[in-house]
UniProtKB/TrEMBL annotation, chain A:
<feature type="domain" description="HTTM-like">
    <location>
        <begin position="9"/>
        <end position="310"/>
    </location>
</feature>
<feature type="transmembrane region" description="Helical">
    <location>
        <begin position="124"/>
        <end position="144"/>
    </location>
</feature>
<dbReference type="InterPro" id="IPR007263">
    <property type="entry name" value="DCC1-like"/>
</dbReference>
<dbReference type="GO" id="GO:0012505">
    <property type="term" value="C:endomembrane system"/>
</dbReference>
<feature type="transmembrane region" description="Helical">
    <location>
        <begin position="77"/>
        <end position="95"/>
    </location>
</feature>
<keyword id="KW-0812">Transmembrane</keyword>
<feature type="transmembrane region" description="Helical">
    <location>
        <begin position="12"/>
        <end position="33"/>
    </location>
</feature>
<feature type="region of interest" description="Disordered">
    <location>
        <begin position="476"/>
        <end position="496"/>
    </location>
</feature>
<feature type="transmembrane region" description="Helical">
    <location>
        <begin position="184"/>
        <end position="205"/>
    </location>
</feature>
Automatic annotation (TrEMBL), chain B:
<feature type="region of interest" description="Disordered">
    <location>
        <begin position="651"/>
        <end position="674"/>
    </location>
</feature>
<dbReference type="GO" id="GO:0012505">
    <property type="term" value="C:endomembrane system"/>
</dbReference>
<keyword id="KW-0812">Transmembrane</keyword>
<keyword id="KW-0472">Membrane</keyword>
<protein>
    <recommendedName>
        <fullName>HTTM-like domain-containing protein</fullName>
    </recommendedName>
</protein>
<dbReference type="InterPro" id="IPR011020">
    <property type="entry name" value="HTTM-like"/>
</dbReference>
<feature type="transmembrane region" description="Helical">
    <location>
        <begin position="253"/>
        <end position="272"/>
    </location>
</feature>
<feature type="transmembrane region" description="Helical">
    <location>
        <begin position="185"/>
        <end position="208"/>
    </location>
</feature>
<feature type="domain" description="HTTM-like">
    <location>
        <begin position="18"/>
        <end position="317"/>
    </location>
</feature>
C-alpha cells in the first residue's frame, strides 16, 4: 500500500510527461508568437520600458534576471524572440529535449522578467511547471529523441517485426537509463504539489461575495481590461443563470481538483476526473480572459496527472472501426522506413503491416485480442497493384489506394480523426503521390536506404565534427533512455505500455520467436557497470537535491503569498529560497479574480492630440471614448492588460516616465500601424465605471457614470474633447 | 586557356597555399586558444567586482542608458543581463566552463560558437578597457569558429575513434586507421576560406603595425626608451631593464621591433619553403610578443598573438617534428596481460596516443615478457605471481620493463612523452605509477568496476552519411564558406577604413551599409592596427583619488592608502591592464559621461560599503589625473609632474565634525585629454 501511495504521489508516467511537453510547448509557441506582435512595445527600448530603465528601477529592490535585458533595439528584440520561438519549437517536438527544456525555462523566465509590470500569473504557473518537469524525462515519449532512439534500437526489416509490438525487457530498459534516473522522484511530487497549490490557493483567494453569490463571472466578463473577444461575446450571449452556473463551476473546480489529486483512493478515476476538470477549467480561463499563459499552462498540467492505468487502457485498446492493414512495397527502403515510423505513431495498434512480397493470396490483419491473423485477400488486390501503390484495407474489406490510403492511415492514428477531412481532399494530390511513388527507389538510395531496384550508393562516415554531434543519436544520453521509456511505455519498468492487445503479456526477459529486434536489442545494450551506477547515483542525488530546493522555495513562497492556514503562513523564508523564487519568477501568487473580480470596469484612456490638432486615443486610433460601454474591450493581450493595470498605480510611479515618453512617440498605435501620428501632447486617464449587477441595476438605482483619474500629462496635453462625460475623481494632475 | 579555367586554377593554387589547414594544427591551436581563453576569463573574473558588476564603476543600466540610441548602436553584450556581483560571478563561471569545454574539445563546434559570443560580450560589457588585444581575441574566435578545430586532439575525436575503431583483440591494436578520411576534412586537412582569413588577418596586423609607425621617435629609435618609462603599464622586469639598459642599447631594440614586424608579413605569406618561413615566423612571433608580454601589461594582446601563431603550423612542420622526435624515441612493444580487460583497455588508450606509430602490442605469453612481475623496474624479470598488467619490451634487445619503468619507456615513444612524462610524475607526485600498481594488483576488481570486458562490449558505430546527407553537407559547407567570404569582405573594408596609412581615396566609411556596420559593430571586429603609432606616447599618467572620509582622513579608494599625487618617483604602478586602461580612458573628455552622476562617482561614494567601515564614508573627493613626462632620451628622470582634476565632489550641506577642518572648495574639472 505504501508503495502504491508513493508511486501515486511521486511518480509520473512517461507518456503523461510527453503529452505535457507537447501541450506546454504548443502553449509557449503560441505565447511567443503573440509576444512577437508586441516586440517593440515590451522588448525594445522604443517600448514602454527601456532595458536600462527597468534595471535601474529594480536595483536593490528585487532579484530579477532576464536575457532580454541585454537586447536594446527592436531588431535585437525580434532576434531574441525568434530564438525563443526556436527553443520552444525544439522543446515541443522533443529534439534534444533535456537541453531545450532547460533553455525553454530560461527563456520563459527571461520573457517574463524583462518587464515585471507586464508579468502575470500565467508566467508564474508555466515557469513553475517547467522548472519541476526539467528534472523529469519529458522527452521519453512523443518526441523526436525517442523516435530517433527507437528507430536506432529496433531496425525492423520485415512485416513480422513491424507487427511485433512488445515492450523491451526490464534489463535493457535499466541499462540505458539516464544517469540518476529513478521512477520515484522529488520533482514528480513537487510538480503535483504545485498543481495542487495553484488550484487550492486560487480557491482560498476567492473569498469575495461575488464568488459566493455566483455573480463573479458576470463582473469578470464585464471588465474590459481582462476580457477576451470570446468573453466579450459570451457576456452578452449567455444569460445570468448560465454565468452563475459557470461561476460556481469554476469555483468548485478549484476546490475539487486538489482534493481529487490528493485523495489516496480510486487512483485511476480520481486522477482522470481531476485531469478532465483541469482541462475544462483551464480552457474556460484561456478562452474567456486575457490571462496569458495561465489557462494553457493549467491545461498542459492536466496531462501530468493522467494515470498510468489510463494510458495502458488507451494503448491496449485498438479501435475496431479504425483497424487497417497497410500493404507496402517491401523492396523500397523509404516505404519500409515510413512503415517503421507509422508503427511508432500507432499507439493503439490499429495498423497491421504486410509487405507486398508476402501476399500469397492472404491478407494479414489484427483480430482484436487474438493477435495477427490471415484472411482472404480482396480480389481487387493484385501483384501488379501492390507494386504501384500503397494499399490499405479496412476491417470491412474496403481497399484504398494512393493518397486516399495515406489519408486512411493518418486517420487511424491517435487524434487522426482531426485529419478526417483529408479523406475528401486527398485524391487531389494523387499526382504528387505518383511522382513520389515512381521515384521511390531513387529517394530510398538518396536516404541511404537499401532498394532492390537500385543498388545502394556507397555510404561513407560522416566528418568528425558532424559525427560528434550526430552520434548522440546512439544508445547514450536521453535518446537511449527515451527509447527505453518508449519500450517500457510507462516511464518505468513496472508496466508494458507497448504490449499489444494480442500479446498482452508484461514484457520480460523472455524473447518470443520472431522478435528479432528485441533479441538484437538485448545484445546491443551493455551491462551497467558499478562505475556508471555510481555516477548515476551521484547525478540522481544531485537532481533530487536540486528538485528539493525548488520544492522548498515553492512551498515557502506559496505560503507567503496566499491565505494559507496559519501553521503554514509562518514558514520562514531563508535568503536562498527567496532568491530561487525571485530569480525564477516563481512568485506563487495565485490570485486570479481574487478575492473577487472588480465590480468596476476600468480602462486607461489616452487623450492625445496630434500636430494636426486631431484628438486620438493611442490605443484605439480613433477619438478618445470615455464611455467604456461604447469603447469595448481592450483585447491587446495579457501583457498590455497587466502592464496598464500596474503602471497606473502609485507604487509604480517611477516607471511612468518611460511610458509617457513611449506614448509621446506614438505608443501602441505606431507599433501596430507603423505610422507615427506625431503626438503634440496627451493626457492619460484611468477611467472607472461601476458594472451593473447581474440582471441590471435595482429599480430606482442607476449605474453611475463612474470617474476618471488623470494619471499624467505629456507635452501640450490632450484636447479634452468629450472627457467631461465622466467626472474627474481628483481635479488637477496628480503627477 | 580560357579565363575561367585560369581563374579556377588560380583559386585552387590560392586555397592550396593559404586556405588549407592541417587538422593537427587546428587541434593544437584549439588547445592553446582554449587555455588562453580560460586564463583570460579568470583574469577578468578577478576584476568582476569593480569592473563588471553593478557594484563597480559602470553599472549595466547606466551603460545601457549611455548606449541608448533606439535602432542604431550595434552593441550587444550578454553580460548586460547580469547585474549584481553574484550574478556576474555566475556569468563568469559559465563562461570559463564554456572556454574549458572548448579547450578540451568537447562538442567543439558548439563551444567555439558560444566562446565567440562570450568573448565579444565580455569585451563590450566594459568598453573602457577594450584595446587591440581584445579585438584580436574576437577575431581569432571568429575565424576559427568556422574551422574544424575539434577534429584532432579533442574529446570529440577521442570518442569518435572509439566508435570508429572497435578493437576486439590485442592484435587489432596494431592496425591504425588514418586520422580522418571524410568530408571536407579529408586526408588530415581542411580547405576553407576561414583559414585564408585567419592567415591574412594576422599578416595585415603586422603590416599595418609597421606602416603606421612612421613617427620621428620610431625613426630615431627611442620608442623602447619611452615605453619602458610608462609606469602605468610596465612590469617590474621592464623597470629593471630601463634602469640597467643604456640608451644606445634601446635603439637597436626599437628598430628590431620594426624589422621583426616587417619581416613577419612575407614570412607568413610566402607560399614556398614554408618549413623554414613559417617556423621562423612562429619563432619571431613568440619572441616579439613574449617580450611584450613580460615587459608590458597589455592584457590579452601578446598571449593571443602567440596563440594565433599556432595556426601557421604547416604539414611540413608536423612532418619535421615527427622525424625529429622519432629519431629520439625508441620503438617499444607493449606487452599486455592477455587475460585482463583492464590491460586491453589501457592498450586501447595507448594505441590512440601513439601518434608516431612506435608502439606494437602483444599479449603476454607471446614473448619473453610472459610472466613479468609487477615489480617496478625489474629488467627481464620473470614474475612469480602471474603476468604484469602492462610491460614494455625493446624489440631490438629484448629487454623488458615493468611497472613505473614500463610506463616511462612507453611514454618516451609517445609524441611529447619524453617531456610530459617526467613533468607529470613530479606534478602528480607519482600518482600514475601508484595507480598502475594498484590497478595491477586489483585488475579484476577495477575491470569489474568500470564494466570492462574482453572482448570489449561494442558501442554504436559511427553513423554513415547518406547520399542525401552528403548533398546537404555540401550545401551546408557552401553556405558556411559564403558567410566566411562575406565576413572576409567586411574585414577588408574595415581594414581600409580603420588604418590611417591607407590612402584617403580608398576610404568608404560613409558608404558602408547598415548590415556591414552591424556585422562589424556587434562582435567588435575592428581592424585598427597601430600600437604606439605613429609615435609612442611620451607622457605617463595614472588616476589618483584624493578623498576625505567622514572622520577627516585622506584616502585613495582605489588603493586604500593615502593618495599618491607624485608620479615622477614611481618604479612601476603595478596596475593590471584592466585597471590601467580604465584609468587612462576615464580621464578623457569623451568619457566624461562615465564619471558622474553614476559610474565612477557612485562607485567611489560606496567605498565604505566595500570596506564595511562606517568611518570610511566619503564626504568629498577629487579624482586627479596625475601625469608626468617620460625622461628624455639619455635621461632617467621623469619630469613635469602635474595633477589634473577630472572629477570633484563635495557632499551637499555637509558640516565637518567638531575639530575637523572645513572641506576644501570644489575644484574646477579640467581636461586631461580627449
Amino acid at each position: 500500500m505504501l508503495t502504491k501511495l508513493r508511486d501515486h504521489f511521486a511518480r509520473i508516467d512517461a507518456r503523461s510527461l510527453g503529452l505535457f511537453r507537447v501541450v506546454m510547448g504548443l502553449v509557449l509557441v503560441l505565447d511567443v508568437l503573440g509576444r512577437l506582435q508586441v516586440a517593440r512595445d515590451f522588448y525594445a527600448n522604443e517600448g514602454v520600458l527601456p532595458n536600462h530603465n527597468h534595471l535601474f528601477n529594480l536595483r536593490g529592490k528585487e532579484e530579477v534576471w532576464s536575457l532580454f535585458h541585454a537586447l536594446s533595439t527592436q531588431g535585437e528584440a525580434y532576434v531574441g524572440l525568434l530564438v525563443a520561438l526556436f527553443v520552444f519549437l525544439a522543446f515541443l517536438v522533443g529534439w534534444r529535449t533535456r537541453v531545450f527544456h532547460v533553455l525553454a525555462l530560461v527563456f520563459a523566465v527571461s520573457l517574463t522578467a524583462r518587464n515585471t509590470l507586464a508579468e502575470g500569473v500565467g508566467s508564474y504557473a508555466s515557469i513553475a511547471l517547467l522548472a519541476f518537469t526539467a528534472f523529469l524525462p519529458c522527452g521519453s515519449r512523443f518526441s523526436l529523441d525517442s523516435l530517433r532512439a527507437s528507430m536506432a534500437l529496433r531496425d525492423e526489416q520485415t512485416s513480422a517485426e513491424l507487427n511485433d509490438r512488445r515492450a523491451l525487457p526490464e534489463r535493457t530498459v535499466n541499462a540505458v537509463r539516464l544517469p540518476g534516473w529513478s521512477p520515484v522522484t522529488v520533482a514528480a511530487f513537487g510538480v503535483l504539489l504545485q498543481i495542487v497549490a495553484i488550484h487550492a490557493c486560487s480557491a482560498l483567494q476567492k473569498s469575495g461575495e461575488a464568488w459566493r453569490d455566483g455573480s463573479a463571472l458576470h463582473y469578470a466578463l464585464h471588465g474590459d481590461l481582462w476580457v477576451s473577444g470570446l468573453g466579450a461575446w459570451v457576456r452578452g450571449a449567455l444569460g445570468a443563470g448560465v454565468l452563475k452556473g459557470l461561476t460556481f463551476g469554476l469555483r468548485y473546480a478549484e476546490i475539487v481538483i486538489p482534493v481529487l489529486l490528493v485523495v489516496p483512493v480510486a487512483f485511476r478515476w480520481t486522477r482522470l476526473a481531476a485531469a478532465a476538470l483541469m482541462v475544462v477549467h483551464g480552457l474556460v480561463l484561456a478562452l474567456l480572459f486575457e490571462l496569458g499563459l495561465y489557462g494553457g499552462a493549467l491545461v498542459a498540467a492536466a496531462a501530468l496527472v493522467v494515470p498510468v492505468e489510463a494510458w495502458a487502457a488507451f494503448e491496449r485498446s485498438p479501435k475496431p472501426g479504425r483497424m487497417l492493414t497497410v500493404i507496402y512495397d517491401a523492396d523500397c527502403g523509404m516505404c519500409l522506413w515510413l512503415a517503421r515510423l507509422l508503427k511508432r505513431f500507432d499507439l493503439r495498434t490499429n495498423i497491421t503491416f504486410q509487405g507486398n512480397d508476402d501476399l500469397s493470396a492472404m491478407l494479414v490483419r489484427r483480430a482484436g485480442k487474438k493477435g495477427v491473423e490471415r484472411a482472404p485477400l480482396p480480389a481487387e488486390i493484385t501483384e501488379e497493384l501492390v507494386q504501384r501503390t500503397v494499399v490499405v484495407v479496412d476491417v470491412e474489406g474496403r481497399v484504398f489506394l494512393r493518397t486516399r490510403a495515406v489519408a486512411e492511415i493518418v486517420t487511424a492514428l491517435p487524434l487522426g480523426i482531426l485529419a478526417a477531412p483529408l479523406r475528401v481532399v486527398a485524391p487531389a494530390f494523387d499526382v504528387l503521390y505518383n511522382a513520389v511513388a515512381t521515384k521511390r527507389h531513387r529517394i530510398s538510395v538518396l536516404m541511404g536506404k537499401t532498394s532492390c531496384a537500385i543498388p545502394a550508393a556507397p555510404a561513407r562516415a560522416v566528418s568528425p565534427e558532424v559525427g560528434a554531434v550526430e552520434g548522440a543519436a546512439g544508445l547514450t544520453g536521453e535518446g537511449a533512455a527515451s527509447e527505453a521509456d518508449e519500450g517500457s511505455g510507462t516511464g518505468d519498468v513496472a508496466d508494458a505500455g507497448e504490449v499489444s492487445g494480442a500479446q498482452a503479456s508484461v514484457a520480460g526477459e523472455a524473447e518470443a520467436p520472431g522478435s528479432a529486434g528485441a533479441v538484437a536489442l538485448v545484445h546491443a545494450v551493455p551491462e551497467v557497470s558499478p562505475a556508471r551506477r555510481t555516477v548515476r547515483h551521484v547525478a540522481g542525488g544531485l537532481r533530487e537535491l536540486s528538485a528539493a530546493l525548488v520544492l522548498a522555495a515553492m512551498v515557502v513562497q506559496t505560503a507567503r503569498q496566499n491565505p494559507v492556514p496559519a501553521a503554514l503562513a509562518g514558514l520562514p523564508q531563508p535568503p536562498l529560497l527567496a532568491t530561487v523564487s525571485s530569480f525564477s519568477r516563481m512568485l506563487g501568487r495565485w490570485d486570479v479574480m481574487a478575492p473577487e473580480p472588480r465590480r468596476t470596469n476600468e480602462m486607461m484612456i489616452v487623450d492625445a492630440q496630434t500636430r494636426a490638432g486631431e484628438a486620438m486615443d493611442l490605443f484605439t486610433g480613433s477619438a478618445p471614448e470615455v464611455d467604456l460601454a461604447a469603447r469595448g474591450p481592450l483585447r491587446m493581450g495579457q501583457l498590455w492588460s497587466s502592464y496598464l493595470d500596474r503602471v497606473r498605480r502609485p507604487e509604480f510611479l517611477e516607471f511612468q516616465r518611460a511610458f509617457r515618453d513611449y506614448l509621446g512617440k506614438g505608443g501602441p498605435l505606431r507599433s501596430r500601424t507603423g505610422v507615427d501620428p506625431i503626438v503634440a501632447g496627451l493626457d492619460a486617464y484611468w477611467v472607472v465605471k461601476p458594472i451593473a449587477p447581474p440582471g441590471g441595476a435595482p429599480e430606482g438605482e442607476a449605474v453611475g457614470a463612474g470617474t476618471r483619474e488623470k494619471l499624467f500629462t505629456h507635452g501640450r496635453g490632450g484636447l479634452g474633447t468629450g472627457m467631461d462625460a465622466v467626472p474627474l475623481a481628483r481635479p488637477g494632475v496628480r503627477r | 586557356m580560357h579565363l575561367r579555367a585560369r581563374l579556377g586554377r588560380a583559386k585552387q593554387w590560392f586555397l592550396a597555399h593559404y586556405g588549407t589547414a592541417d587538422l593537427r594544427t587546428l587541434g593544437v591551436f584549439r588547445i592553446v586558444f582554449g587555455c588562453l581563453l580560460v586564463a583570460e576569463g579568470l583574469r577578468r573574473w578577478r576584476e568582476a567586482g569593480w569592473a563588471y558588476s553593478n557594484e563597480g564603476v559602470l553599472a549595466n543600466h547606466y551603460h545601457l542608458y549611455v548606449l541608448y540610441r533606439p535602432s542604431g548602436s550595434y552593441s550587444f553584450s550578454l553580460f548586460h543581463a547580469f547585474s549584481s556581483l553574484a550574478e556576474v560571478h555566475v556569468a563568469f563561471a559559465l563562461s570559463v566552463a564554456c572556454f574549458f569545454c572548448y579547450a578540451i574539445g568537447w562538442k567543439s563546434r558548439l563551444f567555439a560558437v558560444l566562446s565567440f559570443v562570450l568573448v565579444t560580450s565580455m569585451d563590450w560589457r566594459m568598453p573602457l578597457v577594450e584595446n587591440g588585444g581584445y579585438v584580436v581575441v574576437n577575431l581569432l574566435a571568429l575565424w576559427t569558429m568556422f574551422l574544424p578545430t575539434g577534429a584532432r586532439f579533442s574529446v570529440d575525436a577521442w570518442l569518435r575513434s572509439y566508435r570508429a575503431r572497435q578493437e576486439r583483440a590485442i592484435d587489432d591494436l596494431n592496425v591504425r586507421a588514418p586520422a580522418s578520411d571524410a568530408g571536407d576534412v579529408g586526408a588530415g586537412t581542411v580547405v576553407s576560406w576561414a583559414a585564408v582569413c585567419a592567415v591574412f588577418n594576422v599578416a595585415c596586423i603586422y603590416y599595418f603595425n609597421v606602416v603606421n609607425k612612421a613617427g620621428a621617435i620610431w625613426r630615431a629609435g627611442d620608442t623602447v626608451h619611452y615605453v619602458l618609462h610608462l609606469d602605468r603599464m610596465v612590469t617590474g622586469l621592464a623597470v629593471l631593464m630601463r634602469e640597467t639598459l643604456p640608451l644606445w642599447a634601446t635603439k637597436p631594440l626599437t628598430w628590431g621591433v620594426l624589422v621583426v614586424e616587417a619581416a613577419l608579413v612575407p614570412l607568413i605569406l610566402w607560399p614556398f619553403g614554408r618549413r623554414v618561413t613559417r617556423s621562423l615566423a612562429m619563432l619571431l612571433m613568440w619572441g616579439l610578443h613574449g617580450t611584450f608580454g613580460v615587459m608590458m601589461r597589455l592584457g590579452p594582446f601578446s598571449w593571443f598573438m602567440i596563440g594565433w601563431s599556432f595556426l601557421l603550423l604547416a604539414p611540413a612542420q608536423w612532418e619535421a617534428l615527427a622525424r625529429w622526435y622519432r629519431e629520439r624515441a625508441s620503438p617499444r612493444v607493449v606487452v599486455l596481460d592477455g587475460s585482463s580487460p583492464l590491460a586491453f583497455a589501457l592498450g586501447r588508450v595507448l594505441a590512440r596516443l601513439d601518434g608516431l606509430d612506435l608502439l606494437r602490442f602483444e599479449a603476454s605469453g607471446e614473448s619473453g615478457a610472459s610472466g613479468a612481475s609487477g615489480a617496478s623496474g625489474a629488467s627481464g624479470a620473470s614474475g612469480a605471481r602471474g603476468a604484469a598488467l602492462v610491460a614494455a619490451r625493446d624489440p631490438a634487445s629484448g629487454q623488458v620493463w615493468t611497472g613505473a619503468a614500463a610506463l616511462g619507456e612507453i611514454a618516451q615513444a609517445l609524441p611529447g612523452g619524453k617531456v610530459v612524462w617526467p613533468v607529470l610524475r613530479v606534478v602528480t607526485l607519482g600518482a600514475p605509477v601508484k595507480a598502475l600498481a594498484f590497478a595491477a594488483r586489483r585488475r579484476e576488481a577495477v575491470a569489474r568496476f568500470f564494466g570492462l570486458t574482453l572482448p570489449p562490449r561494442p558501442v554504436p558505430a559511427l553513423p554513415v552519411e547518406t547520399p542525401l546527407g552528403q548533398q546537404l553537407g555540401r550545401v551546408r559547407r557552401f553556405a558556411r564558406e559564403g558567410v566566411v567570404i562575406y565576413l572576409g569582405l567586411c574585414a577588408t573594408s574595415q581594414l581600409i577604413n580603420d588604418n590611417k596609412s591607407v590612402a584617403a581615396a580608398l576610404k568608404h566609411d560613409e558608404y558602408m551599409p547598415w548590415f556591414v556596420r552591424a556585422t562589424i559593430g556587434y562582435p567588435r571586429l575592428f581592424q585598427a592596427w597601430g600600437m604606439f603609432s605613429a609615435n609612442p606616447i611620451t607622457d605617463d599618467g595614472v588616476l589618483a583619488v584624493d578623498a576625505i572620509t567622514v572622520d577627516g582622513r585622506h584616502v585613495d579608494p582605489f588603493t586604500g592608502g593615502p593618495p599618491d599625487l607624485v608620479l615622477t618617483d614611481s618604479r612601476g604602478e603595478g596596475l593590471n591592464q584592466i585597471r590601467q586602461d580604465y584609468f587612462n580612458r576615464i580621464r578623457l573628455d569623451r568619457n566624461k559621461v562615465f564619471r558622474k552622476p553614476q559610474g565612477l562617482q557612485e562607485y567611489l561614494l560606496r567605498y565604505h560599503e566595500r570596506t564595511g567601515k562606517a568611518e570610511d564614508e566619503l564626504v568629498a573627493f577629487d579624482v586627479l589625473w596625475v601625469r608626468d613626462q617620460c625622461p628624455r632620451p639619455g635621461s632617467k628622470a621623469p619630469y613635469a609632474n602635474e595633477t589634473v582634476p577630472i572629477l570633484s565632489y563635495r557632499r551637499p550641506g555637509y558640516r565637518p565634525r567638531a575639530g575637523l577642518p572645513p572641506l576644501p572648495p570644489l575644484r574646477k574639472e579640467e581636461s586631461a585629454g580627449d
